[in-house]
Amino acid sequence: MVFAGFSEPKRLSNLKRAFKYAGDILNIPALVRLWDGSEIVLSEGEPSLTLSIASPGVVASLLKCPTLDNIVGHYAVGNIAVESGDLIGDLKFIRQRIKKKDVRRLSKIYLLRLLWPFILVKSAKAASKHGFENDDSGASHDNARNQNYIQFHYDVGNDFYRLFLDPEMLYSCAYFKQAQGSLEQAQLDKMEMICRKLRLKPGDRFLDIGCGWGGLICYAAAHYGVKAHGITLSQEQYAFAQEKIRALGLGGRVTVEIRDYRMMEGTFDKIASIGMFEHIGLANFPLYFGKIRSLLSDRGIVLNHGIARRAKSKGKNALTRLTPEKRMILKYIFPGAELAPIGHSLNEMEAQGFEVHDVEAWREHYALTCEHWCRRLFSNKKQAIVMVGQERYNLWLAYLAGVAMGFAAGSILIFQTVASKRSKEKGASGLPLTREELYRK
Fold it and tell me: How high is the pLDDT of residue 71?
């Protein structure tokens, strides 16, 4: 005889009661669809988002291991599915609706009493074949490992990135002069602002470290008359940039190569590092800034554009502590990435012989950028799944949505820092006294 608490009808009944209880308190306008086809409306109002659960084993797995990585794993393989007309919009709405005081009202004891029959159910597997193998913590940053990290992320294919990037294939924070502006214009405005901050002028030797698909080096050469060189570790990006240079007729002024920044030689008047800083590893900050300084001419200017984490207590592992969100991104999207507070980066720059002139926060710009990317990928779902498969599509959509929400909430930050190489000759830096020319028409 089967004890009633472990019977399928009893488990289903209890699960529905648990969802209804949580939905009424949290006031979430969503619908939950269970494996038997039954549905639970979580609160009054028309649900805009539907959550599907594939089996009782999924509930069992989440109860036994309620981690973000486990949730994402089930989402990736389809054990949990989310149906939405506008994922970003729905997530924003739900975040606004859920209040901390309401979450605290939930009785964990009552929920456990309802859900404990799932404890003895065999857990569904949530393993995804798209995680980065072995070290994903960012602790290893030798040359070969760096190239593996970059290729894991960027060599997923140029056609995939075309589904959500702008025509210039700029995969970094755009610059929105108006919140409702287009991604295309915001990315052009970003390149223009970078060129102005660097005070590019005809004849300048310009280096772009981590040049992506070549958008900035081509823009700087075409609009500011510089001699530009870009380096990347991605074969896919290199091939695309080479073709772009050829198509634009910039072969005499723009070059690109596959090279680690540590192996770079030569002298440049201006250097940009856009969205590459996150990949170098905290232990390599002195090496990174020291190398840039060695490549710059006297009084040369560098613009460092990178994501940062919020500064926290000065605990022993404050800089290297891994949050669940970061572990998920390291495993599935950006292996090797490490973030530091902006103050840590500025200290390292000054220690390596730079004078910092300007620091500008672009957090809200990146929230808007990621919203555009997420919506574009979502609108091209069918094509994306054909290219990279359902699992990888699910992971990328969750990544873009999560990062957009993180920047919007302020849990992730991004800054552009402009600095110059300190000269042996003390005195004026040579930079304008105001920012006025940055915003000229």
Answer: 86
Domains delineated in the chain: 4-118 (no CATH), 143-439 (3.40.50.150)
Q: What is the pLDDT of residue 139?
A: 47
| Residue 40, number of CB atoms within 10 A of its CB | 18
How is residue 277 annotated by DSSP? G
CB distance 256 to 232 below 8 Å: yes
Task: Tell me if 406 sits within 8 A of 307, measured CB to CB.
Answer: no
- The answer to whether the beta carbons of residues 296 and 271 sit under 8 Å apart is yes
Cβ neighbours for 34, distance < 8 A, ≥ 6 positions apart: 12, 15, 16, 40, 52, 53
The Cα–Cα gap between 191 and 219 comes to 7
Euclidean distance between the first and the last CA atom of the chain, given in angstroms as a whole number: 81
Q: Which residues of the chain have pLDDT under 70?
A: 1-5, 127-155, 313-337
Per DSSP, the residues of 398-435 read: HHHHHHHHHHHHTSEEEEEEEEEEPPSS-S--SS-SSS
